[in-house]
Amino acid sequence: MTRRILVVDDEPDVLAVTGYRLRKAGYKVATAPDGQGALDEMRRSRPDLVLLDLRMPGMDGIDVCRHIRQDENLKDVPVILLTASSDSIAREQVRQAESDGLLLKPCDLTVLLDTVQRLLEQTRANEKQQECIVVSVTTKGGQ
User: What homologous superfamily is domain 4-141 in, according to CATH?
Assistant: First the structure.
């Protein structure tokens, strides 16, 4: 199954380049130019992972991440925040938003792909573990 990634950034060039890199790596890619567009896209078609710009006009990446974490259907989608700022304030905001990672822009292609792959593998392992727990509970309850 091809994994679907949503890339959110207010810079069209970042959307184009990041989307191209991910497609070349075999991922299905959707894009959104702003926070509200990201939430709308996620509700239409739930992604397997979100790459989300931290600093955007209107609803920034922190707000979008908080909305994702409060939505029952989306709260377990991995979110990687992207920022050009490496200051401690940005890092604290990222921690508070409960994102799954932070990458500094411009991001090395290898680092980007490795981080995406690692988070997708962790998510898949967690899903399999939950499936096993459900099967185990169902089996015990059926005896």
Answer: Response regulator (3.40.50.2300)
